[in-house]
Design brief:
The chain is mainly alpha-helical. The protein has one domain: Methane Monooxygenase Hydroxylase, Chain G, domain 1. Helices cover about 85% and strands about 0% of the residues. The protein has 3 helices and no strands. It has helices at about 5-40, 45-65, 70-89. The protein is elongated, with a radius of gyration of 17 Å. The mean pLDDT is about 95.
Length: about 90
């Protein structure tokens, strides 16, 4: 339990940030799931459309340090590779 005013404020800030980060990470995971499901269904056009939103969310999450920036880049690269493979087949 925080004792000082500053500690109470930090607790409020941390709770607000945690809630916001949880919501954004959950939305990111849902968007990635949509891309992967579209690829598994063989719907390349839908996967490409969902990928653009997923890439934006990944970049934003990496920039805000919700996930490591390298993980964001790696995930985008893997999704692009999967979409390209689905296009060619």
């Amino acid at each position: 339990m925080p004792n000082t005013l500053g500690a109470k404020k930090r607790l409020r800030q941390n709770v607000a940030r945690r809630d916001r980060n949880r919501a954004l990470k959950s939305a990111l995971r849902g968007q990635l799931r949509k891309v992967r499901e579209a690829l598994q269904a063989g719907n390349v056009e839908t996967a490409e459309a969902e990928y653009t939103d997923a890439a934006k969310r990944l970049d934003r999450a990496g920039h805000r340090n919700m996930i490591h920036p390298n993980k964001a880049a790696r995930t985008k690269s893997r999704l692009q590779k999967a979409i390209k493979a689905a296009k060619s087949s």
